[in-house]
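Might I ask for a little of your time on a matter of protein folding? Here, with my thanks, is the record as I have it:
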Amino acid sequence: MNSDREKKRKRKKQLTVLNCLLAAMIGLSVMAIAMLEREESRAEQALAQESQAGQKENGEQTGEENQATRENQTTEENQTTEENQTTEENQATEENQTIEENQATKENQTTEENQATEKNQTPQEEQTSEENQTGGQNTSEGTGNQSELITGPEGGSSKEQEGEKMPEESPIVPESAAVTEEWFDDAVMIGDSRVEGFRIQAGLKNAAYLTGKGMNVKSVFTEKYIKQGEEKVTVLDALKTLEFGKVYIKLGINELGWKYPEIYIEDYSKLIDAIREINPDADIYIQSIIVVSKAKSEADEVYNNDNVAGFNELLLAMAEEKDVYYLDLNEVLAGEDGCLPEDASSDGIHLGPDYCKVWLEYLKTHTVSR
């Protein structure tokens, strides 16, 4: 009996010990799990902090890159601005040089004319001789729309009709007996959209027209305004294909915005030289720039009658210098206030049919016979 009890006690002790050990192991496991969880939490926090730090660094780098980009752009813009300023200064310098050269040329011409006068030779004779030996030079600038070449009948007896002989002291053509439209059989009309309107509305069909919208004294050399067959050619190339005895030129409205009017006169003079090279015997009529309406003049900084008057003064001086005829269209087209009448034009610039006919009558009563 005692031995059985002893055995039971030993088993209880053993079970108790085992239970204690099992409890200890469970406790240790719980502690280990808790420690692992804490470590994982710390690791996650560390990763989160590193991620935030990385984003912050990236943000700073991006800011620095953006700032660097802005600085580079600013530098490039400054360089571009400096280059543009340099280009404008160079252009201004070239234009100033051109003006100075023109002034020097005019002074030299004046000196030569004075010398010619002392030798009993008129400056116009000497200048005409020089112009017949030299041709026009092409220039490049200007744009415009194309216009077809419209010609009148070949030949004609226009030279036989009598006009008013022009006084030697002035290029302005005075009023003369009216000629018939046959006078214009051998005439060529060169000009811009205003002359194009004249062609359509004045009723003069027997002249040749070399016209184009936007035409100016530079673009006549380079722009292919005139349609000949299947191709388009420049005004001067078209003129070479015609037989003509008179040339009527009206250019200037598109040049009113030019910074240096002297360039306008220089290029206009080259056009006259080029025409004389093609036909030295042709009579050349320079038509004044027609004024604009009062409303247009007061509203526009470029197309106004102050600019028109200034350019016409230069044209008159050039006509005298180049020994060509000058037609002052504003004698009949301008109103008492010096402006184009409001009923003469729908846009203040281009003439309507009635005033185109007035223009034609002026040309008929202002001719020169040789």
Residues 2-118 form the longest helix (117 residues). The radius of gyration is 45 Å. Residues 1-121 form one domain.
